[in-house]
User: Which sequence fits this backbone?
């Protein structure tokens, strides 16, 4: 929760922009992001797999046993994460499923951000939406404020608010993860963020900042700022 409070203004802006504006929507959104980032600490995909991990995660449709043994992490070698990304997110599979059409696209457009945006096609869609050139500079997606906006955009385009309203964590997980990885942890995360008033706590934190910056007028900053973010009532 400390991370949320430290970035309260950015979170509230994204919540309002993408209508993540009820306790259950917030809980599902944060619960998924928490798992995707290892507790809001990892904004780039970790491809540090062992050969077995590669086969278990990606299967023979995306990488061969020979390639997994050659590039996976062992006691004698580090994982070659760039080679792994270009294999599992490249080739015919990457072109069909991720829009990766050029050599090196697998690594260039590997998972980044709070929701692990992956593949040239999705990076292009976000560029078209936001105007930010994440094709020329994909590392922008790893910067926190942009990463959070990307997560909100993906959540909205995938129509996950309606699934959150129905408490359908299974479908939400499949939309975000592509499978059911660490599903029990996601359940725990959602339950955690439902256990307290996240929106209320973030608003209080922002109001406290505003009061500290405006010691002689407490009411006007609240009205103007909260109305601007859509929380005036």
Assistant:
């Amino acid at each position: 929760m400390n991370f949320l409070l430290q970035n309260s203004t950015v979170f509230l802006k994204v919540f309002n922009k993408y209508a993540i504006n009820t306790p259950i929507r917030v809980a599902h959104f944060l619960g998924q992001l928490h798992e995707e980032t290892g507790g809001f600490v990892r904004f780039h995909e970790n491809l540090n797999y062992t050969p077995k991990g590669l086969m278990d995660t990606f299967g023979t449709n995306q990488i061969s046993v020979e390639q997994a043994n050659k590039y996976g992490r062992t006691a004698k070698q580090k994982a070659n994460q760039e080679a792994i990304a270009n294999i599992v997110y490249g080739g015919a599979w990457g072109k069909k499923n991720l829009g990766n059409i050029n050599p090196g696209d697998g690594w260039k457009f590997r998972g980044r951000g709070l929701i692990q945006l992956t593949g040239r096609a999705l990076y292009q869609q976000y560029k078209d939406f936001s105007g930010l050139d994440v094709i020329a500079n994909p590392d922008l997606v790893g910067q926190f404020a942009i990463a959070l906006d990307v997560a909100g955009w993906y959540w909205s385009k995938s129509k996950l608010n309606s699934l959150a309203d129905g408490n359908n964590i299974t479908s939400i997980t499949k939309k975000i993860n592509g499978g059911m990885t660490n599903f029990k942890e996601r359940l725990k995360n959602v339950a955690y963020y439902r256990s307290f008033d996240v929106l209320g706590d973030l608003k209080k934190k922002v109001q406290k900042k505003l009061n500290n910056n405006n010691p002689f007028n407490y009411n006007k900053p609240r009205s103007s700022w909260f109305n601007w973010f859509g929380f005036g009532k």
